[in-house]
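Quick start: read one record
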Amino acid sequence: MEHHHRQPTADAGLLSEGKRATAENAADGTEAGFAVDGRDDTHWAGAPYYVWWQLDLERVCRVERLRIETEAGTEGVATYFIEHSRDLLNWDTVVEKTERRKSDAGGEQYETDFEARYIRVTLTYCSTGETVGIRHFQAFGRAPAEREPAAASRRSPLKFAAVSYDRAQGFESAETDEIETGRTDRVVLSGEAGSYLLYRGVDFTEGGVDQLRGEFGFADLDKSKRVTLEVRADDLRGEKIGELVLFKQWKRWSVLAGSLKHENPALLKGVHDVYLTLASVDPGQALMIRWLAFVRRTPLPAPRPKPAALPAPENGEYRIYFGNLHSHTGFSDGIGVPEQAYDYARYEAGLDFLAITEHSNLYDHNLDWNRSRKWADIQRTAEEKTEDGAFLALFGAETTWYNQFGHMNTYNMEFFLNAYETELNEIPAYYDIVKRYPDSIQQWNHPWSCGNRHLDGFEPYDPELDEVLHLIEINTIESKELGGLYYYVLALDKGWHVAPVGSQDNHRGQWGTENTLRTGVLVEKLTREHFFDAVRHRRVYFTSALHLHVWFKVNGAIMGSIIPRTGELEFEIKALFGPESGSRIVKAEIVGERGEVLHAIEHDGRHLEYKVSLTCESRYFFAKIYQEDGEFAATAPVWVNNE
C-alpha cells in the first residue's frame, strides 16, 4: 500500500545524496552507493529478489518524501517495501508496493512523515528476472535540531540492545562485524557460568508475554557446545520464568526464541526487573547477545479435519505421475526464485509436480509464520503456476535442526515450524504440534545425513504421529546400505506406515534434472485434492528408473493399503515404461521385513505383468523392480494386519 501524508514543506531538502548505503549483496559492476550518487548511468543491483538495500542518513531526520526508481524501468515490473528505523533494531513499514504494475517515468514518489536514521528497501519481485536493482533513491526532509537521543524502550514487543543493561556481572561489551554486511555491532559476551545481566523496568504490558527472543552468537562454532540461559523476574534468585538451551545454528549468529511460563500469570505481565543468568556453559563456549525482546508468540491456526478418502477410480486403475517433493530456491539456501523453479520443473525437466520446501529458519520473520512475505509469495506463486491435469506447483517447509536430529518436510499446512524456537529442539514437543493437524503431510528427509542422530532411528513408535507421518526419502546416490533402502526398511520394521519418495533436494537449480530420482504418485486426476489423498493413503513410490510406472497389489489392494491376513496372499505386479526410454525391466522382487527378498522374478522386456500366490508371515510387503543398469523402483508396502 502507498502512504500519502501531509505535503512536504518548501524547505524540505535532499537528505540522501552521498550518504552511506549498504546492501545484502551487489552484482558485479554495481555498488550500493550507486543508487544515491545522482547519476543516470549507474545503479545498484542484487539477487535474488528479497535482497535488501539500506541507507544511513547519519542522524535521525524527519523524512517527508521518498522517490524510488527501480532498475525494472518503465517496461518491467518491480515490487518492494520500504522500512525505517532509528536504531537498526525496530523497523516500521512506510511503503509497500504489491501491485504488479509498470512504473511511470522517473519511478514512484511517496509523501511521508516519519523520523528515522535508517531507510531500508527490500525488493520482492521483478518481472525481468531474479536480479533486482535501484537506479535512483531519494529521501527529502530535514534534520531536526540536536537533542539527546531518546532512551530505548523496553516495552513488549520492541527490541532493545543487550548492551543497554543496568547491571552486569561476568559479561563484557564487545564489537563484531560478522552479523550484517557493512556494519559493526556492539554486543555483550560471557563464557562464565553464573554471569548475569539485569534490565530494570521491562514492560511486559497488561497483555502479557510468553516468549523471549534475542539475537545470539557463539564464540565456538561447535554445535554440541551449549549454554543454558535462565530468565528470572524481579530478583537474581527470583522466580524462574524461562530457560533457553542455546547452541550454534546454521551460522554463528541467529535469532532464537524460548518459552516464558509460570504458574503465577502476574509474573508475565506488567513491569518487572529481568535477570538473565548463564546457568551453565560448556567448556570453551561463550555466548554473545546483540538484542532482546519479550513478546507474545504468534498463535498457530486452528486445525482442519482430515478429509474423507476419495473413491477409487470406477475402473479401479490409477494413473501415475512423477515429480519431486523436496527443493529449494534463493528464498533460502538455493539459487533462483520460485517462478523459475516451477517453470523449469514443468517445461525443462518434464515433471508433473514440484514442491518448493524452503528451510523454515531462513524465511523472513521466521518466528512469525503469518508475517513472512516469502512464505506468502511462494503460496501465491504456487497457485499461479498450478494447472490441474498438467502440473501441480506445491509448497511446504523444511524444519531444520542443528542438534544432530535431522530434517523434516511439512506439507498442506498454513504455517511453518522453526526449530529456532528452542523448545522444538525437544523432538516430542515438535511431534506433539504436528499431531494436532490431521490433514497435514509429514516427511522424514534424508535420514542418512544432516545429523548423527539419524532422526533418532524412528523411535519411539507413536501411533498418533503415524497418522500424519506419511513419507520417507530414499537416495540411492548418497545412501548405499541395503541397496539404498536401509532407512526405509528400518522405519517399516519399527511399525511406521510410510511410503518411499525420491527427492533431489535441489540447491543448485536443475529442478528435476539434477539426477534421475523421482517420486511416483497413483491418482485418478492430477489435482491437489487427489494428490494429497494419494499421499495420505501411501499410494506413492520411489524410482531412480526414469518413466518406470509400477502398480503393486496384494489380494487386490493397491500399494499403501492395510489388509487382513489370509492364509495365502495373491501378489500382482504390473510395470512398464511410459515414454520410450530404451530401458528394459530385468528383475522384480517381493520384499518383506528386514529387507528379505521373499520372491524374485527374472525378466527381460519393457513391460512386466506378474501374479503369484505366496504364504508369508511378514507384516508388510513391497515390490522392487529393476531396469538393466541397476536403477530401480521401490513401492510403498501393502501392510497385513494380523488382528
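The longest strand covers residues 51-70.
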